[in-house]
Amino acid sequence: MDANQSDRKGDVNLLERALVHIPGGVNSPVRAFRAVGGVPVFVDRAEGAYVYDRVGRDYVDYIGSWGPMLLGHAHPEVVKAITDAAARGTSFGAPTEREITYAETISRLYPSIEMLRAVSSGTEAAMSAARVARGFTKRDVVVKAEGCYHGHADMFLVKAGSGLATLGAPDSLGVPKGAAQDTTVVPFNDLAALQAAFESAPERIAAVILEPVVGNMGCVPPEAGYLEGVRALCTQHGALFIMDEVMTGSRLALGGAQAKYGIKPDLTVLGKVIGGGMPLAAYGGRRDVMSVIAPLGGVYQAGTLSGNPVAVAAALATLAILEREGEALYAGLEAFGGKLQTGLEGILRETSVPGIVQRVGSMFTLFFTDRTAVKSWDDAKVSDTVRFGKWHAGMLSKGIYLPPSQYEAAFISARHGERELDRTLDAARQTLRGI
Ligand code: HOZ
After folding, report:
1. CA 66 to ligand 1 centroid distance, Å
2. Would you call 102 a catalytic residue per the annotation?
3. How far is 335 from 227, CA to CA, in rounded Å?
4. Using 50, 70 and 90 to split pLDDT, how confident is the model at 3?
5. Does the annotation count 52 as an active-site position?
6. Mind listing the pLDDT tens digit for each residue in 253-269?
7. pTM value?
8. Contact by Cβ (8 Å): 362, 378
9. Residue-wise pLDDT tens digits, 108-165
């Protein structure tokens, strides 16, 4: 069934009901559609490349649960792994053999990760990695890049992208000055600024954390030599390089952006794809660094649902499929992404709408800008967000479900094919003609 926005009364009713007991009607702010106007789609179920609302209206899904659904929704092998695991108990709070297999699998796919901890969300993974870096180096300062988002721990909510950028707020209320005073922010893709940060705080910087390909200010790739430069500066100054691969991990390559670009971080933060669509994330890296974690060392981190057996089963099934399908799967994503990008760029030219498509593999963003590239938050922030709102509404009305923010990357799944491509480009042509 094609989407028809004239009949979204059901979503309007659900939003009214949701607003009574849930702030903004949503459990994560970007989902509220405040940046683009309109009413969020209340999803009833999802399968393959589609999400469906309660009356069965279908949408080609480019949110993919904000990244995890690389294999598409409800992959039968993943669903079976989840149901089999659930039937054997949903939480033990005790070690399991499958956690070991999970750690062995991640370590095999990401050779920089000699030891890891499984946690329940990317936020938890990033804040724990920062604590480990501080505990290991005995230094306090963490450097982040403007527009990169590392979850909602206090120290990272400084010039963060994602939902904060979407709502036009650089920082969050409720973060005490003390919590953020040891966070230094530099522009992404700017090695000179990072070098200056190191020089102005000699032997005080514990770690540099960044997204190797940013997804949280829209899709912003690293310039040639940038990640190598960050690696070299960290090594030179005795700081750890933490790669936040929550979005890129096992999406841009089986071994993440670090495999794609050939960079070895000291610590890696993982989530989304490596959690198989369940609440599972991980952080890990060098054995000497990870050995500071309790009970081996003095850095504390714990969690009742860490390494949850159902989540780990979903993750293992997902990673097994990715390993089995290997290069062919990533080549398919690249091929779809390439056709989508070329198609959208052609339509932008045809319609004379100022915009550029930035894409790395299966992550992309159409920036409404007259700049020729978006390399940093300074470039991203001047995008025409009013036009983005019209684009989003137009596409949604034609059954295309895009992230409701200029500052969230869109994600392609392995289940997106020619049918979805044609439908997306038809909708884009009609929409861009009208804005
Ligand atoms: N802010 C996350 C994505 N960048 C998650 C968004 C959501 O789940 O609503």
Report:
1. 6
2. no
3. 25
4. very low
5. no
6. 999 999 999 999 999 99
7. 0.96
8. no
9. 999 999 999 999 999 999 999 999 999 999 999 999 999 999 999 999 987 776 666 6
- Ligand 1 within 6 A of CB of 123: no
DSSP state of 125: H
Per DSSP (E only), the strands in 384-429 are: 400-401, 410-411
Q: Sign (positive/negative) of CA torsion 17, 19, 22, 28?
A: positive
**For the sheet containing 356-360, what is the strand order?**
356-360, 363-367, 410-411
For the stretch 75-124, pLDDT in tens is: 999 999 999 999 999 999 999 999 999 999 999 999 999 999 999 999 99
Token representation of residue 254: 């089986």
Which 3 state secondary structure label does DSSP give 212?
Answer: coil
Q: Is 226 a catalytic residue?
A: no
Residue-range domains of the chain with CATH: 5-74+326-433 (3.90.1150.10), 76-320 (3.40.640.10)
Q: Are 24 and 34 in contact (CB under 8 A)?
A: yes
**d(Cα 392, Cα 345) in Å, to the nearest integer?**
17
Of 50, 149, 226, 407, the active-site residue reads 149
CA dihedral angle for residue 382, residue 61, residue 330, residue 221, rounded to 10 degrees: 10
Helices (H), 96-238: 97-109, 122-137, 162-166, 177-180, 191-200, 226-237
